[in-house]
Write a structure and sequence with these properties.
The chain is α+β, with helices and mostly antiparallel strands and about 525 residues long. It is built from ten helices and 22 strands. Strand 12 and strand 13 form a beta hairpin. It is elongated, with a radius of gyration of 29 Å. About 40% of the residues are buried.
Length: about 525
Amino acid sequence: MKRTYLWSIIVLLNVGVVAACVAVFFNFFTVSIYRKEDSKFLQQMASLEIQAGNKAPDAAKNQADFDFRKPHPYAGYKPQPNVKYSSGETFTNALGFKSPELSAKGPDEIRIAMVGGSVAFQGSAGTNADDIIAKVAQKIALKGKKVSYINAGALSYISNQELNVLVDDIISQDVDIVVSLDGFNDVHHIMFYNGRVGWPAFRWDNFGDTSSQTKSQCPPYYPSIEPNPRNNVAIANALDNYLENILKMSQVCEAFGVGYLAVLQPLKQFGPKQCQSQPPSNDEYFDRKAAFYCQVINAFGQWDGGQSKTAAFVTMADALYDRQDLFIDECHFSLEGNERIANNILQTLETRGFLDNTGHKRPLARVRAGAPRVEAASDFFDPRTLDATVQTTGLRDIESDPAGRWRWAVGPESRISFPLQQARPMRLEFAISNPFPGQSVVLSINGQEVKRYDNLPATPWLTATLSESLPFDAQAGTNEIVFTYSLQNGQGATLGSSDQTPYAVSFTSLRCN
């Protein structure tokens, strides 16, 4: 009996040892071997000295001070904003972009943005000026054009994150051209980092690299799906997801009058004839990525007409094939590689007419899809028509009931401000329902009193106490429309309820056009 127990223990120990060996083998030979070169890139990133705020650079506190993947509600994560590192020539701005702060765009200025992963963010771990989009901007400037740029790349981004950054951040920055440089992460991450298609590789799903640079710092948000580099279904789904996101970015840019250039990024060992009948290589994982790339190239070829000035779909997968020495791993390359890719992007922009003066961009930078194009203020009961530069205070959101819609004015005044590039005639139209007997309303525009309404009667709910349509001359620069009120709930008047919000009047219509 004792011998039986002894053999049972020995068998269990052997099984445990074998299982551990299998786990180590899988981790290091099906995942880590394809990340061992990645570590060269991460070592370059880790060597940067961080200067956060006014603190002196401190290499030992590098990763503690700068977060390459700071959690973000829409993009999953973004680079930490307002951080300088190295000599101060490498930095992020207030939006977390690795590019200068943006000011109002000048006349004839071209503003170009790039989205992508670490290759776009800092493919060679150089300064901001060494990044691909910065080099493109420099080359445009050498041609005598005014140019500003946005580097919206981020480490490990996939196309879903790029799409979110495009919609939530870039479109509102008055851009003329958006370049997406991507493709690799969408297939690589589904194989080795996160088996959930369309989800960020890090933060929520803690698979993959466990180094200090990339280890998830947040608890899993959702049950993880372990990646499988041989899961052909997942790779096919990742392909569909990627192509759909490229089309979405193209359509978003088109809707806002922005030029769009989709670029399939370089892949080490991917040659000009890779998509022809090629025998399998000795690297099955490269073959799977190459097959993904070939299907992207086929789709891009079908979409790209070669004549459009609003969108182009090109491959640069083999752009560095003749210089394999420029790669530092599967997808990152040296400063010289950055230079070559920047030249290729510039050439595409030129040959496709993105930089000429015929104008692929609509006259107004901010266009609300499905709504009339307007400059500055419009209908305050149709937010689609309101330009992003319009600011309001003392005016609550739209409310409604079966009787109609209204916006409460609260406090002693309601203020509307908006900028115009040129002076022009405008018209202010509004209707007010007043709940307080004896209410006085004073209307001022740009510091001048325009009209006073004294001793207004109280009228039934949403019945117009007064209705006006007033022309005025708007000025170049900032314009301000101010309504002031003598009575507010709790301040000289009461609505007879426990609600202490200082309601003054309710607007039932408000337009400025």
